[in-house]
Amino acid sequence: MASVSERLKLLRKEHKLSQKDVSQILGISESGYGYYEQGRNEPSIDMINKLADRYNVTADYLLGRSDSPDKKEKEDAFDPMDEINRLLKEYGIEHSGFFDIESWKAMGPDEVKQLESYFKFITEEAKRRGKDKQD
What range(s) does the HTH cro/C1-type domain occupy (predicted)? Predict the structure, then answer.
């Protein structure tokens, strides 16, 4: 697979852009961008995201983790962390203090029993999956 610097150079040329053009898009100096293409510096996550959006490719493609630049393929793939984050947002857990120990201390006996059932379910599923992988 290609390196980040190789992908950046390839995409810039495919889009008929100069290093100066890309540096202006990113809001950095031309030499700063040039260092990315030379492999002397690595772009930040923010820069990778901006470049992926500009070139309409996935960040994985830019990082050399995938040979497919197609965003549609990535969108169709199941990503458990994306799904978990979606659920956290959907149920308002990320803002609810779910991970706040003080909220846990305020739980009643019935709530703790529900939590225990959930933990039991998760650990049993993890063990089952581990056993399935061994077979």
Answer: 8-62
Q: Encoding tokens for residue 95?
A: 């803002």
User: In this predicted model, what pLDDT tens digit does every residue of 9-37 receive, in sequence order?
Assistant: 999 999 999 999 999 999 999 999 999 99
* CATH number, domain 4-75: 1.10.260.40
User: Does the pLDDT at position 116 exceed 70?
Assistant: yes
Distance CA 22, CA 50 (A): 10
Question: Given a cut of 70, is residue 62 above it in pLDDT?
Answer: yes
Give the residue extent of every domain in the chain. 4-75, 78-134
DSSP line for 57-115: --HHHHTTS-S---HHHHHHS--HHHHHHHHHHHTTGGGTTTT-HHHHHT--HHHHHHH
Q: Which residues of 122-134 are buried (b: 16+ CB within 10 A; e: fewer)?
A: eeeeeeeeeeeee
| Residue 56: both structure tokens together | 């309409």
Is 27 strand, coil or helix? Answer: coil
Q: Is the separation of the CB atoms in 60 and 74 below 8 Å? A: yes
Res 133: pLDDT: 66
